[in-house]
Amino acid sequence: MSGSYKGDINFESVLEYEKSGTFEPATKEHAQRNTPKPKKPGSVTEKSLKGMRDTIAYTAATVEYAINTGDYSLIENGPMSTSEKNHFLDSEMKDLLQRARDGKRWVDNAKITYTLDEDKPVWDGEVYSWKRTFTMNYGKFEVDDGKVEDVSDGGGDAKREYKGHLLAEYRNGSWVVAGIASQFEDDDDPVTPSSSPSASAGI
Q1: Antiparallel, parallel or unpaired: β 37-38 and 17-18
Q2: Helix crossing, 49-69 with 91-101: angle to 10°?
Q3: Nearest alpha-carbon partner for 141 in 63, 28, 29
Q4: Where is this region: Disordered (predicted)?
Q5: Which residues are paired to 148 by β-bridges?
Q6: Vertex 61: Cα angle to 9 and 145 (nearest 5)
Q7: Which tens digit of pLDDT belongs to each residue from 168-200?
Q8: C-alpha–C-alpha distance, residues 121 and 103, integer Å
Q9: C-alpha closest to that of 134 among 66, 62, 183
């Protein structure tokens, strides 16, 4: 495994997006319109460091897309591990996202910044572990049933930062990742991409 992918992931340069109409950012009067939809890159099937990085980028982008549009189908059908899908898309989150899809609730243009904190991940014989930091910027307001609520932090955007690690496993011809948008303790089971003890050999 060679090369370094340390640093912020530039989603626009790593991924392609499906566009329909002119994008309109969210305002206090309406949610985002014609939000660009991330396309799953063909490289997610590559057993390489680039394939892993691109899978991480795509999965993080599907989370951002879901929060802004309410459409979480890309998460459900994406590379995120089943355990993290169940953790992230719990009943409360699904209810919030459904309200967004129905146009009853939206946020001020949520934006994810995703940073890989090491040059490359560590292989432990079963899965790869990569230190990462992701920051969720929720903007300055959210709208719920027509009511605008200020969520800014002292006049700035509301942000949450999460430091930890993600896990990745190459299985059945593609990458499965966990810990992308959920924070687990090191000994928690939900972070494991697969319950199977047999992972593919390192890259």
Answers
A1: antiparallel
A2: 60
A3: 28
A4: 22-48, 184-203
A5: 143
A6: 135
A7: 999 999 999 999 988 765 444 444 444 433 333
A8: 40
A9: 183
